[in-house]
């Protein structure tokens, strides 16, 4: 069998899910004269790249972070004539981490291209393996999660997604103890469905409420329902369980990937904005009742249009309404400043920039709510 992507993929598919890094490293030792191999996975807050093969080894440094941020290989010739390669581990735009390889082979474009492709095979295998082993979950966390956070993270679709016409990323913070804010997305054919939610209350009860709403909307969506039917099914489910004593503020969006036309159901507090060329404008929608507030609530679709080069941003009230220590709400002016800092960043970097600015705004005051931001770039033309 030739040593190409297909053979590497077959090797990984035949490997137990918790042994992928070791088998992949052994393959590189044998076929590519690798002196050392390390798989570095991003932690939940995307602030650290943590090693898998040697858990006690050093975390990723500036070069690894550069590779993770730029999504481009980093190649360094070694003094002995060999090569040090840092390669992104990414699946459909979802950034998992970085593969670090030290090999005795000389730097060459063909070597970098081949190993970059192999890194993609490993990334796909690691993402799939998450369903069947806890090993990579354990590496990605710096501390123990609360039960609410565990449920919330398992419910998320991913942290970034790329398509021909869009780049999409989402972030949830704080990472290790959350209170019900959430985002969800799915792409099928020429439709991208995106939701941002804020569950009523805090702790485990808020997360269970959000879990019910998200799964109700997924159930409707997977049955072919539009966003009005998704909202109404979720609202009915929440009301049937809580009788109007709990609700879920939700913004549902469905984007036509062929035209950029957006249908929206605004059922609460998340806010949408469009940024372009340094200018930011809020999308004005008629706010309807949060999900589950009353029985038999009915919703209506509103529409707006994405133009080439637009950046769509959606934030939960933990971002725009944050007022630590009685300060003015973050959304009053500081949020716009934070968003402008992201103008030249891809969505996967932009969401982190906004949340870091929000942390700075809180200074030494602990947040009293989750913060969710979702960023979508509508590209000038299909790639």
UniProtKB/TrEMBL annotation:
Pfam families: SpoIIE (PF07228)
Keyword Transmembrane helix belongs to the record: no
Gene3D superfamilies referenced in this protein's UniProt entry, alphabetically: PPM-type phosphatase domain
Domain of life: Bacteria
Entry-linked SUPFAM superfamilies: PP2C-like (SSF81606)
Keyword Hydrolase recorded: yes
A GO molecular-function descriptor: phosphatase activity
Domain PPM-type phosphatase: 161-378
Swiss-Prot/TrEMBL keywords: Hydrolase
Family annotation (InterPro entries): Bact_Sigma-Reg (IPR052016), PPM-type-like_dom_sf (IPR036457), PPM-type_phosphatase-like_dom (IPR001932)
Identification of the protein by name: Phosphatase
Species annotation: Paractinoplanes ferrugineus
């Amino acid at each position: 069998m030739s040593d190409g992507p297909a053979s590497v993929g077959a090797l990984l598919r035949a490997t137990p899910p918790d042994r992928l890094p070791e088998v992949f490293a052994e393959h590189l030792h044998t076929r590519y004269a690798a002196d050392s191999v390390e798989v570095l996975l991003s932690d939940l807050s995307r602030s650290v790249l943590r090693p898998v093969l040697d858990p006690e080894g050093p975390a990723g440094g500036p070069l690894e972070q550069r590779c993770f941020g730029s999504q481009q290989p980093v190649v360094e010739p070694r003094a002995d004539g060999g090569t040090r390669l840092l390669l992104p581990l990414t699946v459909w735009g979802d950034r998992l981490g970085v593969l670090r390889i030290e090999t005795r082979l000389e730097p060459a474009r063909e070597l970098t291209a081949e190993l970059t492709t192999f890194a993609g095979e490993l990334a796909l295998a690691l993402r799939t393996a998450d369903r069947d082993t806890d090993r990579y979950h354990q590496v990605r966390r710096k501390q123990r999660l609360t039960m609410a956070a565990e449920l919330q993270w398992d419910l998320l679709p991913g942290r970034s997604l790329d398509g021909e016409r869009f780049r999409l990323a989402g972030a949830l913070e704080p990472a290790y103890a959350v209170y019900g804010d959430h985002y969800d997305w799915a792409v099928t054919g020429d439709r991208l469905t995106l939701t941002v939610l804020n569950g009523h209350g805090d702790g485990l009860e808020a997360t269970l409420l959000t879990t019910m709403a998200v799964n109700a909307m997924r159930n409707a969506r997977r049955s072919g329902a539009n966003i009005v039917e998704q909202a109404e099914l979720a609202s009915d489910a929440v009301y049937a369980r809580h009788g109007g004593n709990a609700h879920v503020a939700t913004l549902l969006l469905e984007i036509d990937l062929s035209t950029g036309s957006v249908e929206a159901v605004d059922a609460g507090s998340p806010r949408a904005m469009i940024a372009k060329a340094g200018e930011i404008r809020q999308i004005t929608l008629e706010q309807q009742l949060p999900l589950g507030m009353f029985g038999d609530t009915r919703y209506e679709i509103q529409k707006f249009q994405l133009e080439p080069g637009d950046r769509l941003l959606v934030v939960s009230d933990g971002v725009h309404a944050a007022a630590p220590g009685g300060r003015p709400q973050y959304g009053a002016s500081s949020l716009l400043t934070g968003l402008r800092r992201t103008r030249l960043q891809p969505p996967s970097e932009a969401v982190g920039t906004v949340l870091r600015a929000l942390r700075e705004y809180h200074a030494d005051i602990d947040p009293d709510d989750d913060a969710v931001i979702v960023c979508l770039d509508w590209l000038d033309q299909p790639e």
